[in-house]
Amino acid sequence: MEAIYFLMVVFREPFLIALVAIGTFAGVYIGAIPGISGTMAISLLVSLTFGWPVNQAMAIMVGVFVGVVYGAARPAILLNIPGGPSAVATGLDGYPLAKKGLAGKAMGLSAISSFFGTFAGIIALAAFAPPIAAIAMRFRSVDYLMLAFMGLMMAGSLGSKTIVRGIIAGAIGLFIGTIGIDPQTAVRRFTFDIRHLNAGVDFIVAMVGLFGASEVLQQIADKKSRPIKQDVKKIVPSWSESIKHFPLTVKSSVIGVLVGVLPGAGGDIAALLAYDQAKRSVKKPTAPFGQGAVEGVIAPETANSAAVGGAFIPMLTIGIPGDAVTAVLISAMFIHGLRPGPGFMAAFPQFYWMIIALLVLAAVFLLAAGLTGIKVFTKIVEVPKGILMPIVLILSVIGSFAMRNNVNDIVWMFGFGLLGYILKRFDYPIAPIILGLILSTLFESNFRRAVMLEGSIPAIFTGILQSPISIFLFSLIIFLMITQTDMYKNWRKKLGAKLEERCGSKTKGE
Length: 510
Hints:
By secondary structure, the chain is mainly alpha-helical.
């Protein structure tokens, strides 16, 4: 029966295939514009498709959703300016690959990884939606608090040579995230009587400034840098390379699905968590992480695409959106008379399987769109910086203004650009600042909620022992803390040296 609903999209309404294709291709190129988020694109589509049949409206919106997530990686790889927060981790190794003349390979890897990640999310949605949603529903405020704390711990290693500098950068991001009116007490925090700061600082504006404007300043200051000739002969990775990285793809897909299921988490956090686990688990990367490791592109791109399917699970099964984009999609469904939530899959099986079919089509078109235009895009890196940098600056201005149509955001974008340039000059990482900004709301809101529910701060630690999820997350945090210590790193190096010595002695004996 399910197969019939699935095939209806292809045979009964073939026009949907064209809409998915248009949406996916458009999403890839919309996502490549810094500051133009998927949430903004889908929000515009809701108003444009208001009078359409629900199947057609969802077809084009699903296509744009899938395309935007991948498209954000292209400017991250080529210019070190992520098209969206989910591509921040991709730029950590994607941009160094472009500096080596391997931008084509990096974009090819990101396209293949996004394809596999999207399919992993679809499989989870089709086969395991109810049980995964049930697990997500068991997450309490304490669990979300620990998840946010786990994310903050990554600041110590995310794009930084020293833990201390990463933590300082993450703390800067947390501080910026507290600017504005307190959502619970309505007290102004760190606004200095500046009225337009009451709404806080938009992290898209901060991201565009920290990555885009700061990169322009750095390129202007570095007079020795020259355009790099790109090698675009090999874009699609070989079978042997794909098989080699298959375990990493699977792990990153699992992370993407599980994080995508959690309301309020989304592909941003999934990509950063996947990058961190790749950095910890891959023993022999193709290059040191942060210096052009292909694993640093595969992990986040797989995870943020897998989070797409994961985000649909709570939306369709319990009526709670997994991220900002599915929040807009659920509003579109309400407009068309559909009420996602418990019982939705039983009441509207045809619509549930139509969503899965649309996602499958979007994944196929994503692969096609992702592998086209790469040779043209790589030419961007070869443009002289006297021409390229003004274009980047114009895109940064457009991206920061487009979020809220506020001229003040342009000023803040330049301010963050100067901050990013200064931090780079003193070898401080930029990515942890964005991580701190993304996690600030999740951390603060769940900390307050946990204190209110448990009664006091000490009682939070007692509450951790009351569920298997809390115990697992707490144990994982302790493990991550241990693995970041110098003692553990030195022990691991010594152990690796001993194992190599034993293997060498056995080889000689033979």
